[in-house]
Amino acid sequence: MRELSIGANDAGQRLDRFLGKSLPALPSALAQKYIRLKRIKVNGRGSRRDVRLQQGDTLQLYIDDAFFAEPEAVPGFLDRFVPHLRVVYEDENLLLADKRPGQSVHTDETEKVDTLIHHIQAYLYQRGEWDPGRENAFAPALCNRIDRNTGGIVLAAKNAEALRILNGKIRAHEIEKTYLCITVGRPKPAQGTITGFLRKDEDRRQVTFYRHPVPGGRSAATRYRTLETRGELSLVECGLLTGRTHQIRASMAEMGCPLLGDGKYGRGDVNRRYHESRQALYAYRVTFDFPTDAGILNYLRGRSFEVEKVPFREKYFSLTYPPRR
DSSP class of residue 62? Predict the structure, then answer.
């Protein structure tokens, strides 16, 4: 028999889901059977699979040792990594990081180590705020993601309760993310809302914008406002009323004003002329607009955080641009 103690980051989970995370070698169907047979108990008593675990509970598991993974040493990168983070805001529950363009948020087929989440986890581990050896399943996690070549604010939860709340607020559209972009051309009208439908092509990793409903299409609405125009380039602020893949990029291209540097939806001739190979798009502000209860994050209600510098705004819309001849 082995015991597992339920800590703060495990609390609130269903018993069966907790087992799935903490004992990945135990098949789900077998876990359900063991619960029915009372070979998995909560505080010494039989339980249901959907019972919500509480901090301080103790699980007794009368199951084969083979289902328990050997304790892993702390991943090497947590000790050796030198975290490089631009922290916009941080407290005991969350961290807002300004992701640089070109960095992946998670591991993918092209990058396994130098990811935003690895930098955040190493940063928290080295500061003594997170110890994977003391957790059954929880690890600091990102609540939103942005494309590799897009820069800007990404939210990371430091504990399970903050992760649950932030994910819920994002689904309920109670966290507002505002973007800056540079378009090739002047949007007409200068401000408004672009509505339509986006259909994703998984093979091409690209979306197509439609003005009318189409099979497989998902509604998309983007609010925009032109801040400044210099020559053929415009600095535009965008807000997402829906959150779809490549929504701003495809929507602005549909208006005839694609993003500078955009290799999928933009103009190759203009991108080459400006020597830009990444879309000029930045998630530069986040606002916690909580009309409903936010639990331990209520103190964030109404607060807004913004990055200090947006590189392409400094480059193309500063007092020194265009360069003097």
Answer: -
Those residues whose C-beta lies under 8 Å from the C-beta of residue 108, and which sit 6 or more positions away, are none
Neighbours of 140 (CB within 10 A): 23
Tell me if residue 117 falls in helix, strand or coil.
helix
Distance CA 169, CA 176 (A): 10
- Dihedral, CA of residue 38, residue 42, residue 45 and residue 49, to nearest 10: -50
Average pLDDT over residues 5-13: 86
Q: What is the pLDDT of residues 65-100, one digit of tens each?
A: 777 765 555 566 787 888 999 999 999 999 999 999
Cβ pair 59, 40 in contact under 8 A? yes
Overall average pLDDT of the 166-188 stretch:
96
C-alpha to C-alpha distance for 197 and 252, rounded to whole angstroms: 13
Using the structure block, give the residue that is written with the tokens 């080295």: 126
pLDDT for residue 75? 65
Phi then psi for residue 111, to 5 deg, are -145, 125
Which of 103, 129, 96, 102 has its CA nearest to residue 118?
103
Place of tokens 């609010």: 223
**What is the structure's pLDDT at 322?**
63
Q: What is the pLDDT of the chain when averaged over all its residues?
A: 91
131 class by beta-carbon count within 10 Å (0-12 exposed, 13-18 middle, 19+ buried): exposed
Q: Indicate whether 58 pLDDT > 80.
A: yes
Task: Tell which residue, 124, 87, 119, has the closest CA to residue 103.
Answer: 119
| pLDDT confidence of residue 272 | 97
Q: At residue 63, what is the residue type?
A: I
Long-range contacts: 194-197, Cβ < 8 Å, 24+? 194/220, 194/221, 194/222, 194/224, 194/251, 194/252, 194/254, 194/255, 195/219, 195/220, 195/221, 195/222, 196/220, 196/251, 196/254
As a whole number of angstroms, the distance between CA 84 and CA 272 comes to: 30
**How, if at all, do strands 281-288 and 151-157 pair?**
parallel
